[in-house]
Design brief:
mainly alpha; 106 residues; Glutaredoxin; two-stranded antiparallel sheet; 4 helices
């Protein structure tokens, strides 16, 4: 639900990483066991089975996945393109994304 989980799924797909989506009712996001994964009670959140890292917020998850798993530089550019890409990513996460979130949550 909302615009943020698909962002993470797109990165997982692009990196060729296996993943499992779990559908959750809105009320379950503010209860255990989910609150132990994300104390803010929002999606997306991941638990990396390879490292044991638990992380939430789509931008942080995307940064983590790229740093941890993008060994072929599919999404990371070792040049000024990296910062151009980061500008668009953070515009989407902090500028455009919240508006889409309002539509999904309210």
């Amino acid at each position: 639900r909302g615009p943020n989980p698909p962002k993470v799924a797109i990165v997982l797909e692009k990196l060729g990483l296996p993943y499992k989506c779990e559908y959750m009712e809105r009320n379950d996001l503010t209860k255990e066991p989910f609150l132990s994964i994300n104390p803010n009670g929002r999606i997306p959140a991941i638990v990396d089975p390879n490292t044991g890292v638990t992380i939430w917020e789509s931008g942080a998850i995307i940064d983590y996945l790229i740093e941890q798993y993008d060994k072929d530089s599919k999404l990371y550019y070792a040049s000024d393109k990296n910062w151009q890409s980061a500008s668009w990513k953070y515009f989407q996460v902090s500028g455009q994304g919240p508006y889409f979130g309002q539509v999904a949550w309210f």
